[in-house]
Amino acid sequence: MEANRANNTAERSPPLAEREDYEAKTMNDTMPRLLLTIVLLSLAGCRADEPVNPSFALTFDDARRAIEDMQQSPVKLRRPLVIIGGYLDPGIGPRLIDGTILDATGDRRIISISTFADQDFDACRAHVIRAVEEAFPSDDQVWTIEVDVIGQSMGGLVARFAAMEFPHFKRLRIARLFTISSPHRGARRAVALSFDNRHIAMRRGSPFLQHLDAGLNEADYEIIPYTRLDDHIVGEENASPWDAGVWWLSDKPLESSHLFAMNDPRILADILRRLRGEAHYTTTPASPLPAKDSTRSAR
Asked: What pTM does this model have?
C-alpha cells in the first residue's frame, strides 16, 4: 500500500526539470512588473512636489509634519467654520478634513454641509443658511453669524451665492472664503450634456457665474483660492475669480488631481495656519500658473 502511495505521488508531481522551468518563467514574468512598480513609485516621489510654486513652496512631507505639530498644540478658531462639499458629494469631502481641523484647533464650532440632494443653487443656498442658523443662531434679520468657510469645488460657488443679497433670505456673513479647486470661472467638464441645473450653471460664461461675478463688487470678504495642476474636471485656470491669482500646487501621479485636492495636506496646512491666526505658507502675489507641460498625463 505504501508503495502504491509513493507511485501515485510520483505520478502527480512534475519532474524536477519542469518545475525549474515553471519557476524560471514565473520569475521572468514577475520581475518586469516589480521593476515597473518600483519605477512608478520612484517617479511618484520625484514628481509629487514638482514643479515648485515660488509663492507656495511647501512639500507633502513638510505639510504633514506641520499638521502633526499643530495637532500637538491646538489653537482655537477665531470664529465658527463651515465646510461645504462639492458637486454630487454626499459628504465625503468635508469629512476627510473636519477631524484634522478639530484636532489642530480643539474647537468644535465646525459644521460640514453636503448639498448632494439639492436640485439647484437656490436650494443649495437655502440649505447652507438653514444649517448655519441651526448650528449658530443669529438675532440679525439680514445676516447669519460671521463664519469662515472652506468651499470644496462647487462648494466655493455655493458660499459666494449664499453671501449675496437675496429678497426674503438671510445672507451668509463670510469673513474668509477658502476655495479648493472651485470653478469660479466655470468648469471644463461642465460642457458635457446634462439636465442638472447646477451642472449647467457651472459652464463658463453662464448667467449664474456672471451674477456671482457682479456680486464681487460688494463682497467684503476675502477669497483665498487653491488648486492643483492637471485638474481636468474644473481646470486650474478656472480656480480663481477673474483678475485674481490662485495658489497652485503640483499634483501626484496616479491620483485624480481634482478629487485629491480636497484633502491635500499642503492646502490643509496653509488653511490651518490661517485659521489659527499664524503665519501661513502662501505668499503674495500668487505666482502665475506654469506653462502647460505636455508630458503630464491627464487625470
From this structure: 0.84
